[in-house]
Amino acid sequence: MQINKIAVIGSGTMGNGIAHVCALNNFNTLLYDNNLESLNKAKNIISQNLDKQIKKGIITEDTKKNTLDNILFKNNLDDDLNNCELIIEAIFENKESKINLYSQILDFINDKNNFILASNTSSISITELAPKIIQKNFIGMHFMNPVPIMELVEIVKGYSTSEETFNTIYDLTLKLRKKPVSVNDYPGFISNRVLMPMINEAIFALYEGVASKEDIDQVMKLGMNHPMGPLTLADFIGLDVCLNIMDVLYHGFNDSKYRACPLLRNMVNAGKLGRKTGEGFYKY
Fold it and tell me: Quick check: is 142 catalytic?
């Protein structure tokens, strides 16, 4: 399947980053969000991130103009989805919300065999998410945050994902100038199956009074050469996102080693979610 036009649904941090990268690489891109305020914010963020790339000498002013011209911002799902060979779902990490969205998408699609539906989920089973009537055309396409900068894309094959679908998405990822990695469908895939328990263990160390948050982060930065410590990273990701992924791992594997730290759960309940709320382990 030749992909020329891409729809991205969800204009938050991941969605606007994915739209940015698609448009930058000359794909006609639709960015949908039913929240008009979020959509307008996404437009500004994409423009600002393009300006950062100009300052770094990565792109030119003409490239920025062409990229923005490639994106059509839309407030509601519509029949234009029929013109897209690829639809990427990038809404928040909730299984029921994603499945409900897929049902809405399919209501607009006339030829259900002639497009690919991809989820940017960071941990939920692709096999469980896949709508029954398009299982072979459904795949995971997990971008990393921030999308315009990070090179990795985890391509996750569900139980029924066809080789044609996988190969099409693998080739597209290369065209987006990203580095694809093939991953089978298990909770957390690879990235979050390894990363989140490390973050969770750092939170346990803080919870148990083993060391201060600054010293825990310093050990991982200086001792393991990580660019940022795990508690700083948790704030950057969002503590609610970290908790959701830990719960997916815990229930998906039915293994107590993935039990979320009580401190993490308490902080989420208190609304201290990290950078996006101004306070998590650190204040911003």
Answer: yes
Whats the size of the chain, residue-wise? 284
Q: One of 122, 123, 200, 244 is an active-site residue; which one? A: 122
Contact 196, 245 (CB under 8 A): yes
- From the candidates 120, 192, 200, 244, which is the catalytic residue? 192
Q: What is the 3-state secondary structure (H, E, C) of 201-222?
A: HHHHHHHCCCCCHHHHHHHHHH
Side chain identity at 201, as an amino acid letter? E
Q: Which bin fits 26, alpha (ψ -120 to 50), beta or left (φ > 0)?
A: left
pTM of the shown model: 0.91
**Type and span of the H or E element at 32:** strand 28-32
pLDDT at 90: 98
C-beta separation of 29 from 72 below 8 A: yes
Catalytic residue status for 192: yes
Does 154 qualify as catalytic in the annotation?
Answer: yes
The pLDDT score that the predictor gives to residue 272 is: 98
3-state secondary structure of 152: strand
Mean model confidence pLDDT for the chain: 97
Task: Spot the catalytic one: 16, 49, 154, 200.
Answer: 154
- Residue 218 neighbours by CB under 8 Å, 6+ apart: 229
**Model confidence band, residue 1 (pLDDT cutoffs 50, 70, 90):** confident
